[in-house]
Amino acid sequence: MYLKIEFDLFTKIVSLHPKKNIMAGNITFTMIKPDGVEANNIGPILAKINQSGFKIVAMKYMKLSAETAGKFYEVHKERPFYGELVSYMSGGPIVAAILQKDNAVAEYRTLIGATDPSKADEGTIRKLFAKSIAANAVHGSDSDENANIESNFFFSQIERF
Ligand code: IDP
Ligand code: MG
């Protein structure tokens, strides 16, 4: 009973909070990878993102150093493609963004499709724009926890809306 009242109060406070849009569950982190930028697909990929109901709450255009790309992909350090991935991701400019939508992580994974574009569903961003399993057009966070870690890796509080 008390628990329920406390939970209702918490929900109410959260719903009134000005930063509610960046609560876990509502955001995901994405990059348009170097192949997407190189092929002039920034516009078409952002159009798909907006048409699918995501709002952009932070965005920047930048080139990653090998050190930064290596840090970002540290979880894959032991995987055989790590070196290739780091040099590829630091080989040209990228667009980094935080996207907001209900259930953002899962919704965005559905929109981008499988890691390997040959296995991605029709109409997904990777099916439409990716070149290969390495050069696969976009990154998308795989959990709420990583969405927050990755968003904080790229953006400070004053760069978010
Ligand atoms: P995801 O991006 O779909 O989450 P992950 O397994 O997290 O896929 O891999 C991270 C990135 O590493 C992929 O997006 C892709 O760019 C690259 N990658 C994954 N598997 C391979 C591979 O077998 N060869 C080369 N690159 C790969
Ligand atoms: Mg991943």
Any overview of this molecule?
With 161 residues, the chain is α+β, with helices and mostly antiparallel strands. It has a single domain (21-159), classed as 2-Layer Sandwich (Alpha-Beta Plaits). Helices cover 43% and strands 15% of the residues. The protein contains 8 helices and 4 strands; from the N terminus they run αβααβααβααβα. A 4-stranded antiparallel beta sheet has the order 2-3-1-4. It is globular and about 35 Å long. The structure holds inosine-5'-diphosphate and magnesium ion. Residues 76, 81, 84-85, 115, 133-134, 136, 139, 142 line the site of inosine-5'-diphosphate.
Q: Which residues form runs of ≥5 with pLDDT under 50?
A: 11-18
Largest sheet: 4 strands, antiparallel
Tell me the distance between the termini: 36 Å
CATH fold-level topology: Alpha-Beta Plaits
